[in-house]
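Hi both,

Apologies for the delay on this - the queue was longer than expected. I finally got the zinc ion-bound model through. Below you'll find the protein sequence and the ligand SMILES exactly as submitted, and right after that the structure tokens for the full complex including the ligand.
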Amino acid sequence: MKCNCLTKVNSSPEMLATNTEVQSVFELNFKTGKVEEYTRLATIKADVKQRQKCKIVACAYCPFCGKKAQSNIDLNEERS
Ligand SMILES: [Zn+2]
């Protein structure tokens, strides 16, 4: 993410006191070598009798500040 909201929220005293973290998911773009981090929304099965797994819902924009969720991490830079 371009912002630091997720880190701030997860390291806040309220979250630390309750042993809770907001989940994130990472997406690796094999063409560019860049990793993008997204805040993950919790999902549950609509019909628990179906065996199909739940889909992951990732926020394209930060739910805390509204900035577009794109990481500045570049794996090609880290390797060299
Ligand atoms: Zn943010």
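Main takeaway for now: Strands lie at 24-28, 35-41, 57-58.

I'll put the files on the shared drive as well.

H.
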